[in-house]
Amino acid sequence: MRVLKVSVYLQAMKNIFYTIICCLISLTSLAQSDFGYENPDGRDPREEGMQRDSTKEQRYVPHHRLTWKWVHDGVYKEFYQIDTLQDGLQNTNLIFKHSVSNTYLGNFPAPYVSDIYILRPRGEDFLPQDRLRDYFFKPEDALDYNTTTPFTQLSYFNGGGRGKTEDWLDVWHIQNIRPYWNAGFRYNLISSDGAYSYQKSKTYNFSFFSSYEKDRMAVSMFINQNMAHITENGGIENLADIRDTSLDPKVVGTRLAMEPKNNLMNFNFKALAQYNIGNPKEIITQKDSATIDTTITYPMKFALALKAEDNRYSFKEESVEEGFFSDTTYISKQGNSDMIKNRKYEIDAKFILNEHPKYKYLPGVYAGLKFKYLSYDQRVSLDTINNRGTSKYTGTYLTAGTFNMDSTTMFNFDIWGSFCLAGDYSADYSLEGRIIQYLNKGRNSSVTVHALLETQTPNHYYLQYQGNHNQWKNSFDKIHAYNLRGHYTNKRLRTEVGVALNNTKNYIYFDTTAMPRQYDGDLMVFTAWAKQIFRLGHFYFDQKVYYQVTNKEKILPLPQVALHSHNYYQNFKEKDKIYKAYQNRFFKQALGFQIGIDLFYNTSFYANAYDPAIMQFYNQEIEKTGNYPKMDVFVTLNIKRADLFVKYEHFNEFFGSRDYFSAYTYPINPAKVKFGIRWNFFD
User: Fold this and answer.
1) Which CATH superfamily is domain 63-681 in?
2) Is 147 in contact with 171 (CB distance < 8 Å)?
3) What's the pTM value of the predicted model, to 2 decimals?
């Protein structure tokens, strides 16, 4: 009955969201017809020689979309472009959009960890969230917008066939309510049955965001909820069933058959307010012979950021499978319902002296205070199942920085830091910075250097955990990190090369028994990478390769080489770097297409094993995985504002080696056909 109620609830929520989507599409259409927004075909009616009706004047409003993010919670703006490009549409697994190589459970979405060390996140305060981070949408991912016309993007991807279905629905809507006030929402749903038994996974999120900027005041708000439901199968029982046979995946035996589930809920709220102080000054910049940019600057501003986050993680079993957990069962062998709750509040206030508008190299500076509160609710002893308690942590931080990110100068820098003055994180500090040296006036080539020096208290999750199958209580030292990274970029040549050196003292990891351990020496990782797009006529060869070496492979196993080779033929050429404009298209330049092949590969290494009871990856020294090329073939089509794709994922399953494991005992999905569409309305 409970399952039925949940199912009905989810279906009702899905229907509500679909209704909202339809209403918003209708709204944007009405806005276009009644308020003079852009024609559906994107043409300016004035260019068509259209006559104006004396009784009802037709107005044309060119579509303009400005997109930015406030860096350091209000210090300065960094501008972005919304991804509407056709290239890369077929790469539907979000973790491979972020990293070329990952250790994961084979299914999408499912827990993962990037195999490229420098691409791993610095870590969430609530550690289980790290394993699903790329599937979540959080305040630090959100942007602010200003649009002259409504913008809606619908994406739907599907594949796998009956009983192995994979679905992805992604809906964006952004619209100005007033010229200075914008609002929007995003709904994202990923659901997959999985190719193997007891592997169903689902993540979804709903987000609402709004921004206001007029005169001296700027305000932005973000609120959302992320959910994940992961059914665990413990991996494949007999690895030979994959390597040596052609069994239907659904009949392959798994190590867990009672369908234990991991559930993760994440709620976020963020509000950012800024008030400009002093006399305004108008700055006029001649960008080129036809473009003049006018901006209003103030000498000083005050910024206040408020953040709230609520997390809940649970691992539930109807009955414990002792063959899998027998050595680590502490409380109950009949069933299990482990749960951890976490709450976080932050208040960040700062005064900012802006960059001087006249003297280009006179930087901006800022200073302020930040207060942080964290709480963890969990079982505190093994005496009873429901013996719970709450641990609370606070920290008061001094924050400061200096910056010069003027778009008209050849040298930019941004340096920021924090120091904990009081509280449970006392003496924690972080000093970080980047410098960018542009090498030509067009700013097409540059050298960027990034450095980090920090000392941090270990995550609470590493210090104490009491679960049915896992328990620990540790006293770890502070973690010290010293990182240096640099890269050269040339946009005209489509080239990027870089190197990085990461050194961590007191590094924390999960050992071969899935217990957290601290290495008291220096753990060093050297990384070099290159990204290059070669073009030969209409043929494109997009290559990304990473090389990495660590001084402690048993503590931090990594593939030495990992790459993504993206190769395709397309029947059009991009005329400029911002807007899509094509030539050499079929059907009166209405149809553009790509046809190509993707290759993912990493060298063999002792990839992590996975413990479903804590949703964490841990070290193993039993068997290496990797040295297997995964290949996809695809075709993408572009018809005006609609992009479509069809791909045959992992088509090389049928020839060569069948040793296609990712995490230990977890094979990647076998071959499947996927298709999808992304449609931009009023773009």
Assistant:
1) TonB-dependent receptor, beta-barrel domain (2.40.170.20)
2) no
3) 0.87
